[in-house]
Amino acid sequence: MNTIAHSLSVSGIKQAATAIKDVVAFTPLLENLNYSSRIGANVFLKREDLQPVRSYKIRGAFNKLASLKSE
Known about the structure:
With 71 residues, the protein is mainly alpha-helical. The chain has helices at residues 3-7, 10-20, 33-39, 58-67; strands spanning 29-31, 44-46.
């Protein structure tokens, strides 16, 4: 079984959301009109580049650091 899929749970997602809520900003989903018109479907992109640190990995990276033990 895939390790990532195996470790996901609703309680784990809620715990991660609580851990990162004061660190990350809300970022919108915005329709990309160029891609939408090219493929004939509505294509939305999650604008993580709007985070204050301009990072696409801030959510996972911070959650991982927050979950580490002090030792």
